[in-house]
Structure formats: structure tokens, C-alpha cells
Amino acid sequence: MESSSDTSTSTANANANANANGMTKRSSSRNQNHGAGGINTASSKRRTNNANNRTASSASPRTTYKYGMFLLYVVVLLATLHRTITAWIPPVSPQAVQNKEQTQEEHEPKPVTIPPVSLDTQEEHEQKLVTTINGIEFVKDIDETGHFVRVLKHPLPVSALKLPTPIFLLSPSKSGTTTFHQYAQCGLGIGSSAHYRYPFKKRKKLQHVGRSMSYNLQDNRPLLQWNAEREAQGMRDNLEKRMAKKKIEEAREKKARAKIEAEGSTPDVLDHYQVFSDFDYRYGQNKKTTRLVSIVDMLDNIRTFYPNATIVYVKRDAHKWYHSAKNFGTFLQRLRETAEVSELVETLYEPVGRANFFADKEELWVGFYNRYTDLVRNFAAGHGDGTNYLEVPLDDDSIDTGLIMQQRLGIPKECWGHANMGALNGTQKGLKTKMGMPKTVPRHWTIETYK
């Protein structure tokens, strides 16, 4: 029994040992398998990298090959096109080249002498500018300020006027002042009427008529007299302003001052003109320093130094004047905002004062115009013997204003017209260009031109 038991026990132990050994072997085998798997993974990565390297190394030759084939294709294509085009163009023989050169020589333009323009040709050219109205010949020309105008082909001498000169038009702007100016120069010729600006003899720049007059007004001298010192001082002041703003180099200062003194001493008087209009003068740097020298401020000077002068007043309907002035830029605003005006001018803004004369206050401006008209009429009543005053309406269709002007002044009524309604030949009014006209501007005229 014991031996049997021992045998069983030993057998069981042997089996247990065998099982343990088997588990140990399997575990070792698994561990070995895991180690082999890691080695295999690393090998796989190395193989992949080697493949990528082989691919990258082989990509460059392949790309170069493609580019080379493309360039070869382009070259072949261009060569084919060249052969095709060459086949279309027939060859040029040397004889054809020689014939072409001879033909060019035969047709080469020869020098041509342009004959001088004959007198007949010039007369024909001038005749194209002539217009006949009611048997009176007019020519188209350009005035001193560069505007297209119509004038008599044979201007009248000053002695043909029925009223004495100088002639002062006292109407405010937008009351037919340009119309009257062009009427006067139409009859008397260009350079007879000074309207707003006139050309200096020594400079190309135009000068304000009212500026020259204001200098004499300050010194109680005749309005049309040359005031050399004032003119030179005005130019000096302008030079100082330019130098202060560094608009002129210091090296040029000496030369500029010498030029000013020369120009200031050269007479450039207004008294060779016969007619004057629109000579208000407003000056100053800004709204706080501006000053207006109005036409009515010059009435006493005219009475004192020009007792025999002719006074003309072209009267417009006050409401029409207001609408015209309102549409003329900032004209009404400038009249209201001028910093300094004379006491006489201030009376025109009664009863509310100048500060309340806004552009949209029609009735206030109508009153302004009517008071201005009364002021001129009162002056004319005490000027001379009263025969040298001429008042005409501008916009009364029942009255032939041109005929009245002809009867009183002596200039043909055909010269009277609406200056601001367009040019005589359809060209836009005020175009400052010579446009092939026969005469140049500005021109320097004297009273002797019209005697």
C-alpha cells in the first residue's frame, strides 16, 4: 500500500515538474517571439527608408528627362513653323531689290520752296472774319483779356462820340457791365475800354482797374493818374510776402527789387482808355482783413477831378439782378463778409445791417440794389449840368436800349448785345486762346490810336 502511494506521489510530482517546465518554455518562447518582432519592425523601417532614398535618387533623372522631352518638342514645333512660313514667302531676287531701290529714288520728295503769302490771300483770310449786319461790317477778334469779341471793321474815332470822355459806368456787377464794355470796344476798338482788369505795359500780368484807382483815392489824386510810388510800394509788399513764404530765392531778391523800381517808375496810366466799368476793388489776405473800395466810394473824386465826365447807369430789374448775383459764385457772400467798407457803403445795407444780408434774403438784396440806384441818381443830379448822365434799362423788352445808346453816344446799336449769352460764332464765351486769330494779345494802345 505504501509503495503504491509513493509511486503515485512521485508520478504526480513528475507531472507537475513537467507542466512547470512546459510553461517556462512557452513563456520563454513568447519572450523570444516578442524580441524577434521588435527586430523585424526596425528592419522594416530601414527597408522603407532605403526604398524612399532610392525613389528620391531616381526622381531627379526622371524629371530632367521629362523637361528635356518638352523642350525638344518645342524646338521641333518652332522649326516646323519656320519651314512652313518660309515656304509661303517667295524668294526675293537681287533684281527685284534693285528695282525697288530705283522706285524709291524716283518717288523721293524733292525740296519745295513755299511762296510767301500774297496780299490777296491775307485779304481773303480777313474777309472770312467779316460779318455784315444792317450794312455795317464787323470783324471777330480777341480783346486784351483774351475773350472773343466783335468790333467794327473800321472803329470810330473818339471825336465821333456825342458825349465827352472819360465815361464811367457806375452800375454794380451783374447789371450789364460786360455788355456795356463790349459795346464800347465794339465801336471804339479794342483797348478803348477798361473793364475790371487791364494789361500792364511792362508785365504780362493783368492789373485790376480798381486797384490803380484806389491808390489815387487814398492820396486824393485823380483816379486815372499814374501813381508811381504807390505802384512800386505795392510790388514791394508783394515781394516781401513771397520771400516770407520762401517762394523766391534770396539770390534773386536784388534783381527783383531792381525790376520793381524800373516798373514803378514807368508810367502805365489809365487815362488812355475812354470807358471804365466794373472797377470795384476788394483786397486783403482773409475775411478779417479784407477791404472793399466800391464804385460809389469814388463819386466825390469823379466830381472833383472829372466834372465833365459822362456818367452811365445801366439799370436792371432788382429781382433779376438778385438772382443773377446769387448764381454768380460767392458774389453776394463776399459783399456781406468783407471786413471793412466805407460808411457810405454801409448805408446800402440798411435797415438790418450787413451781417444779416444772407444770400437767400431776396427782399433785403432788392432793397440794397434800389438804394444803390438812388445813390447814383442823386450823384448824377448834382454832376455837371446834368446833360452828361445816361440811364438805360437792361432787360425792358419794350425799349430798344441799343437805339438809345446810339442816339446818345453815337456808337451803332448793332454793337449792343447780351455779352454773357454766348460768343458770336457759337464758341464758348470767355475762351482765352488765340485760336488762329490774326492779332495777338495783350496790345498796348494809346488815345492817339482812336483820333
What's the structural blueprint in terms of helices and strands?
Elements: H1 2-88, H2 94-107, H3 119-127, E1 130-133, E2 136-142, E3 148-152, E4 167-169, H4 177-188, E5 193-195, E6 197-199, E7 206-208, H5 209-218, H6 228-244, H7 253-264, E8 275-277, E9 281-283, E10 291-293, H8 299-305, E11 310-315, H9 318-326, H10 331-337, H11 343-346, H12 362-381, E12 389-393, H13 401-409
Helix pairs in contact: 6-7, 9-12
Describe this structure in words.
This is Sulfotransferase domain-containing protein. InterPro entries: P-loop_NTPase. Keywords: Coiled coil. Helix content is 48%, strand content 11%. With 451 residues, the chain is of the alpha/beta class. Helix 6 packs antiparallel against helix 7 and helix 9 packs across helix 12.
- The percent of residues in helical segments reads 40-55%
Distance between the termini: 181 Å
Derived structural class: alpha/beta
Mean pLDDT score: 74
What is the H-and-E element order? HHHEEEEHEEEHHHEEEHEHHHHEH
Q: For the report, how would you describe the main beta sheet?
A: 5 strands, parallel
Number of helices: 13
Number of strands: 12
Q: Mind telling me the CATH class of the domain at 160-217 and 273-421?
A: Alpha Beta
**Uncertain segments:** 1-45, 420-451
Assign the CATH architecture of the domain at 160-217 and 273-421.
3-Layer(aba) Sandwich
- Based on CA atoms alone, the radius of gyration comes out at 51 Å
Strand order in space, largest sheet: 5-8-4-11-12
The general outline is elongated
Q: Return the CATH topology of the domain at 160-217 and 273-421.
A: Rossmann fold
Percent of residues in beta strands = 5-15%
Biased composition (Low complexity): 1-21, 49-60
Coiled coil: 229-261
Pfam families: Sulfotransfer_3
Biased composition (Polar residues): 22-34
